[in-house]
What does this fold into?
Amino acid sequence: MFHNVLAAFDGSPSAECALEHAIDLSECAGARLTVMTAAVQPSPIAYWAPGAGATALELARTHVADVAQRARALVANRVPATCVVSEEPARQALVRQIISGRHDLVVIGSRGRGPLNAELLGSVSHYVLYHSPVPVLVVRAEP
It folds into this structure.
């Protein structure tokens, strides 16, 4: 069974659903849970106005701190858990965490944007699915 589960959490409904699955799996298996969230990188447009880049970065840091706090509240005392916050892009941060944290399962939500939007906007779940050296459970929230 699984011993070290990594759950990606961005605060979306699909991420909340995925986190619930990760908590349940960790609870059933007696596994350790790590919840990871990554800061959203501001758009290059955010840097055009003088001083706007610093404001955008601060807003991103505040947002990721709020998201991490929500994750902690959802986990509460249900399973042993650690929360990891990264300031690098979620795709690379998750794959790096899988390897460095020696996780044996990744649980991640999918927004179900469809293939065209996923290609244009980038899909973190697809990236992790194809680059993870361990099994990945992709969870979609009910519509």
Summary: The mean pLDDT is 84. The CA atoms of residues 23 and 75 lie 7 Å apart.
